Amino acid sequence: MMTPPSFRRHCTGLSFFFLLFSLASWAETKTENVASAPVVELAGTRLIRVKSGSLLEQKFNITTVKKERINTPLLVVTGAVVARLPIGSAPKEDRWQFNSIELSGVYADWQRAQVEKDFNAKRLEKIRELTSAQYHSQKLAVDRLRKLVATGTEAIRDLTAAEATLMEVQLGGQKDVYEAETALTVASRSRAALERKLLQEGVDPLLLESSAPGVSLVMADVPELRISLVSVGQACAARFYGLPDQVFAGKVRSLAPTLSAERHTLRVFFELNDKADQFKPGMYAEIGLGTDPRDAVMIPTDGVLHSGNADYVLIGAQDGLWRITQVDVGESIDDRIEILKGLREGERIIGNGAILLKPMLVQALQNEEVGGQRPHFGTKP
To answer: How far is CA 14 from CA 5, 8, 20, 169, 359, in A?
Structure first.
């Protein structure tokens, strides 16, 4: 049976209309799926996904990390002149000037303790020499009497008396030596205690002994979290508030053996040349520690996000993915900051605009604290 042409044309039109309807429905579904994709979301442990081409991504200033040769300080702290040794003809110990009466008094006690220690050391040596001489003299007398008693020329009672005297000399000598050793120990401990007190007051006693005339001793407190940045021999620069137009170079001479229990800081001591007689005890300064030339990683300050007690940057993992990475930071220079650890040359990071992702960073860190359970969420355009 033949199908009328009109019927065939009708069927063809329906098929074409159905095809158009299907394409429109598919396009609408696809548009809805694209529209429903979040602009930003957590994509794994410490991973943030940002939709490519989104307005949010366009706000990021992506920077490639490079190293630079710098000599700016690793750390800047506040310090003060605690002692000064001017040039003069008087004995060195009489020329030291201190920033407080208390420190001056401790120094005087420390000097007296050294005199007592030296006296007791010499006294102990002499007592040992005397005791040894008395013992050997009496022992020779006992040995001579023993020979005479053996030949019958001396009475045995004389030998017994001489042996008793030898024991008395020996015991008396041991007592004298013990008393002298005790006196020396007390003097040594007293001096050691005063050395610790000098450190607590802000001056290294070893520098008081070794410093040459024409120097000033400066002390600075370094926070406990930053003590790894400081070492003996490290170059430093001081800018005194009273001498604002000058910079004075120096080196770290010593570090305190313990941290301050009250402030949790480490005391750092260094010398400054003061032959021009510019410094006075008590003068304050801004101390830049670690000014030796070095290759440093510098990034925009806005690229560092602080959360809790740590700092983080966002490193490019692949297209649209950014890895949350903890870093150790140094000092800021204008609008840039030095990264001491956690970032390598050549890596891509988000500089300006990173703050827009801080809520996601905080959420990622919170998820780690609760066991890594990550809820799915995001911001739709």
So the answer is: 14, 10, 10, 135, 53
What is the rounded distance in angstroms from the CA atom of residue 290 to the CA atom of residue 70? 11
What residue has token string 């801004």?
286
Q: Which of 206, 222, 251 is the endpoint of a domain? A: 206
The per-residue pLDDT for range 171-192, each reduced to its tens digit, is 999 999 999 999 999 999 999 9
Residue 68 near residue 330, CB atoms below 8 Å:
no
Residue 321 has pLDDT above 70, yes or no: yes
Q: Identify the domain boundary among 255, 271, 289.
A: 289
8 Å CB contact between 60 and 350: yes
Q: Give alpha helix (H) positions in the chain.
A: 5-36, 55-58, 92-95, 101-151, 156-201, 205-210, 358-369
Q: Do 311 and 352 belong together in one domain? A: yes
Q: Which residues pair with 333 in a beta bridge?
A: 336
pTM to 2 decimal places = 0.65
Nearest Cα to Cα of residue 340 among 123, 130, 72, 111? 72
**Whether the Cβ atoms of residue 285 and residue 88 lie closer than 8 Å to each other:** no
Q: Provide the domain limits for residue 218.
A: 75-87+213-289
Residues 6 or more apart in contact with residue 63 via CB below 8 angstroms: 299, 300, 303, 348, 349, 350, 351
Q: Is residue 219 part of a domain?
A: yes
241 in the same domain as 282: yes
Evaluate whether residue 59 is within a structural domain.
yes
